[in-house]
Amino acid sequence: MIDTKITSDPPLLSQFRALPLRQIQCNDQRCQVIEECELPLIDLSHLVSQDQKERVACVAAIASASSEWGFFQVVNHGISPSLVGEMRREQMKVFEIPFEKKASSGLFNDSYRWGNPTATSPEQFSWSEAFHIPLTMISQQACYGEFRSLSEVMEKFAAAMSKLARTLAGVLVENLGQLNGTFDENCNDSTCFLRLNRYPRCPITQEMLGLQPHTDSDFLTILYQDHVGGLQLMKDSKWVAVKPNPQALIVNIGDLFQAWSNDVYKSVEHKVMANENVDRYSIAYFLCPSYDSLIGSCKEPSLYKKFSFGKFRKQVQEDVKKTGHKVGLPRFLL
Questions:
Q1: Is residue 80 within a helix (H) or strand (E), and if so which, with residue range?
Q2: How far apart, in whole angstroms, are the C-alpha atoms of residue 71 and residue 55?
Q3: I need a labelling partner for 189 at 20 to 30 A (CA). Which of 166, 236, 262, 292 fits?
Q4: How far is CA 246 from the centre of its chain?
Q5: pLDDT digit string (tens) for the chain, length 334 residues
Q6: 285/251 Cα distance (integer angstroms)
Q7: Closest to 279 (Cα-Cα) out of 203, 174, 181, 165
Q8: For residue 104, what are the contacts with CB-CB under 8 A and spacing of at least 6?
Q9: Angstrom distances, CA of residue 75 to CA of 78, 160, 170, 241
Q10: Are strands 209-214 and 220-225 parallel, antiparallel or unpaired?
């Protein structure tokens, strides 16, 4: 009998060992985890409170966390625990199928990714696999193959995450005294993504990264993560480990929101550590505009040149190809 739990794993170890042999070391203070932190926790029920003071305080808390941390977590967000649990169970089923089938079956418009095929050194390698799915694919039954039970759950989950992302974006826009038209007009099913992540148990080192340090190239990301932990973010030039909270969703600011807000809100570098004992699962929703959307600052004088999302993504891809690393917003500073 074939053990599908083993054959489901992508050949991460062989891909990693094919990279030039180099000792992974980092004595830089930025690489040392100083402490475990609890992100600012915000109760979103206060946004619809009849008490205006409660709503104002909630908006202020969201804006403050977006400026100081670039990350926060939310409860009473409108996505039921039963829907989250069902989505997680269906996600695990998909990742348990044999690797060859995941890589070749065309599931979700060939959205399957694993490891890092562009890595040229161990420091660029990610011990993970994912389905990076355009929202336009989620309603297309042909993309699910044999996983019909995933279809209805994914549609409900994506719709709920989309609604939440727009609500939070609207709050952040409102806080700066602007209108929310940019997000309503330019962010839709053809531009946004849902990413199903799995970080398999890693047998070779506790220092292996499940996901390399990066900032998100979007307006806003909403993340469901399980109880395992492993997410770390940069705070005050030091890495801090984020303590998992099964009742909360994590929200983080992306590069586009930092540019649009003229650096009021911060897109913060983050990474995921691999775990030698257990698999880790997460699901991320990315609020993105169309490729031809111009990203300009909401106020003057602007810190950044105006740029399109398409140009930004192209520059990121060119930098990663040349150097192995994303440069991002500094490329567009005036």
A1: none
A2: 20
A3: 262
A4: 17
A5: 334 445 789 999 988 888 886 555 554 544 666 678 899 999 999 999 999 999 999 999 999 999 999 999 999 999 999 999 999 999 999 999 899 888 887 778 788 999 987 788 888 889 999 999 999 888 888 777 778 888 889 999 999 999 999 999 999 999 999 876 666 677 888 889 999 999 999 998 767 899 999 999 999 999 999 999 999 999 998 999 999 998 999 999 999 999 999 999 999 999 999 999 999 999 999 999 999 999 989 989 999 999 999 999 999 999 988 887 899 999 999 9
A6: 10
A7: 203
A8: none
A9: 8, 14, 18, 20
A10: unpaired
Contact 263, 57 (CB under 8 A): no
CA distances for 84 relative to 42, 154, 226, 306, 329, angstroms: 19, 10, 10, 38, 33
How far, in Å, CA of 211 to CA of 72, rounded? 20
Contacts of 266 (CB under 8 A, 6+ apart): 66, 67, 68, 69, 70, 253, 258
Residues 6+ apart with CB under 8 A from 274: 127, 128, 199, 201, 202, 206, 208, 209, 210, 230
Render the burial of 274-285: b for 16+ CB within 10 Å, e for the rest: bbeeebbbbbbb
Q: How far apart are CA 80 and CA 24, in angstroms?
A: 42
Q: Which residue is associated with the tokens 């609890």?
A: 38
Tokens (6 digits) for 293 = 């959307």
The enclosing H or E element of 225 equals strand 220-225
For the entire predicted model, the pTM comes to: 0.93
Contact predicate 320/279, CB 8 Å: no
Q: How far apart are CA 327 and CA 54, in angstroms?
A: 39
- Report phi then psi at 149, rounded to 5: -65, -20
